[in-house]
Design a protein that fits this description.
Strand content: 35-45%
Structural class: alpha/beta
Oligomer: single chain
CATH topology: 2,3-Dihydroxybiphenyl 1,2-Dioxygenase, domain 1
Order of helices and strands: EHEEEHEHEEE
CATH class: Alpha Beta
Helix content: 10-25%
Low-confidence stretches: none
Distance between the termini: 30 Å
CATH superfamily: 2,3-Dihydroxybiphenyl 1,2-Dioxygenase, domain 1
Radius of gyration: 15 Å
Length: 125
């Protein structure tokens, strides 16, 4: 039986990626043995998302990676939080792909981080 789930995302520049996530307000988690190879971030409760150097990522899957075809959805509590996060994403160098608005019965937006990964931020009613 599964007890936990997390995502691993490859990146080209670990320090630059870490700065991006810090700049948009995410809490960084990193064990000493992960330094220079990976770091993570997570919500107050739940599983972490790990950002992994492409070299380390290659060790896990046995091949080079070039694609970024996963959409990770994260939730926030209010529309105001979503709007603030969208501004932080742009200021940190991310690209808003779908501006904050009501869509499919929820408020949210999507963005692409500096490594090309796609995120969906939602406020569930």
């Amino acid at each position: 039986m599964l007890t936990n789930i997390w995502f691993n995302l490859g990146c080209d520049d670990l320090e630059k990626s870490m700065k991006f996530y810090k700049d948009i307000g995410f809490t960084i988690i990193q064990q000493p043995e992960q330094e220079g190879e990976m770091f993570g971030f997570k919500a107050q409760t739940g599983s972490p998302v790990m950002v992994v150097s492409r070299e380390r990522f290659k060790q896990y899957i046995g091949k080079e990676t070039t694609g970024n075809d996963v959409l990770i959805s994260l939730s926030v509590k209010t529309e105001e939080e979503a709007d603030k996060l969208a501004k932080k994403v742009e200021a940190a160098g991310g690209v808003i792909k779908d501006a904050p608005k009501v869509r499919n019965n929820f408020y949210g937006f999507s963005f692409q981080d500096i490594d090309g990964h796609f995120f969906n931020i939602i406020v569930m009613a």
